[in-house]
């Protein structure tokens, strides 16, 4: 993973509201969570929630899926794994034993 991609993901997750939203999406698993449910759980105005979801999607952390009239947010776990691995890949590499 390129440093710019990891930095974008970490920047978006560095906002308290976006991190709270992302945690709800990750908890929901692969089936995702309806946007309305996130709004209820976190008590966020719809326009604000939409803005934050857009930011998370632009960082490739979530994707959205429509089922009828319901819009679901689904975590892109492979990207999350990539960010985590980016942070851990060179752990202790400069340490001499």
UniProtKB/TrEMBL annotation:
The keyword Cell inner membrane does not apply. Residues 1-95 form the HTH arsR-type domain. Keywords: DNA-binding, Transcription, Transcription regulation. CDD domains: HTH_ARSR (cd00090). GO terms for molecular function: DNA binding; DNA-binding transcription factor activity. Pfam families: HTH_20 (PF12840). The keyword Mitochondrion does not apply. InterPro entries: ArsR-like_HTH (IPR011991), HTH_ArsR_DNA-bd_dom (IPR001845), Metal_resp_trans_reg (IPR051011), WH-like_DNA-bd_sf (IPR036388), WH_DNA-bd_sf (IPR036390). This is Transcriptional regulator ArsR family. It comes from Vibrio maritimus.
């Amino acid at each position: 993973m390129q440093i710019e991609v990891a930095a974008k993901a970490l920047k978006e997750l560095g906002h308290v509201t976006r991190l709270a939203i992302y945690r709800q999406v990750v908890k929901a698993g692969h089936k995702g969570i309806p946007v309305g449910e996130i709004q209820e759980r976190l008590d966020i105005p719809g326009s604000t929630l939409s803005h934050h979801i857009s930011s998370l999607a632009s960082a490739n952390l979530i994707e959205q899926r429509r089922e009828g009239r319901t819009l679901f947010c689904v975590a892109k776990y492979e990207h999350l794994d990539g960010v985590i691995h980016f942070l851990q890949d060179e752990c202790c590499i400069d340490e001499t034993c």
